[in-house]
Predict the 3D structure of the following.
Amino acid sequence: MSLSRAFDWKLNIAVFVIVSLGLVTLLSGSSGLFYKQLIWSISGLALLFLVPFVNLRNFVSQRWFILGLFFLAIFLLLVTRIAGSAVHGNRSWIAVGPVQFQPSEFAKLALIIALSAFFSRRHIGIKRLEVIFSSFFYLALPVFLILLEPDLGSALILFGIWLGFLLASGLPPRYLLAALPFLLLASVLVWNFGFRDYQRDRILALFSPETDPLGVNYSVIQSKIAIGSAGFFGKGFGQGAQARLGFLPEAQTDFIFSAFVEEWGIFGGLVLLLAFAFMIWRIATIGAEAHGNFYKFFCLGAIFLFSSQFIVNIGSAIGFLPVIGVVFPFLSYGGSNLLTSFIIIAIIQSIASRTAI
């Protein structure tokens, strides 16, 4: 296999740009986090250049492999629930020596693979309720365990992936209308019995963005200040006051877009958004040309994952959506998310290497 066939270089370049911009932002704010993220990035790049040479057909055609991967994710989520490490009040991590791993990130990959295998065979029967409820089984188990952590952001991302698969399979609109009363009832139950007080406060804060500036709206207000004060070219490397002086909380994860724009301005933000849009376009192109329904659905799953994370992260930064702890793919700090994202891109590269694009 030649290198020209092994890699879709356009996709690689888009990913490299986003990762590089994230590393620059972390270096500006914290050299310690920068070096940790650099190590994760190098590990991800190694996978990106090795996995495309693996013939995935030997694995994805085996039902035991798909189910084994899915139930491994469930097992890790159970371990997290029982003996996980708590970070910011969420028991979402498993500590392995000095390294902390977040199983919910692996669950996103496992769900995409499981649903890709499921819908590649049964998407034709999407009008049958049996098919819809069978696919819901793959969603319900990980979402239930993740909500117990509690990690509302990851649970919503998983739901978005599942819904995306249903819509891509041709789910009739009348089914969505029929499900609306049940969704409203479920929303009421979750609001009253599932959400914690701070989660309800964050949602209500969307309708009164200027109230409680030192409390529930503090993060979003500081984020808007960081973006609004940037200008066209920004304040320059290391000159972002909101992030550097600690006014902007979680500047390395939830609000890294705000920290980046503060230093590099509207111009830098446009470069970042164009790189992300180009990455999504390349994934869509590879999926459209892929040979085999599994590969097409996997590329769709990757688009659903990255796009939903992007929308929620940006929406939180500018105050259009509640802050629920969703990262910007390839930009935000976090080894588990970054490595999982690299694995997904590596699998897509493997698909591209066996497709004439």
The chain has a mean pLDDT of 89. The chain is about 70% helix and 5% strand.
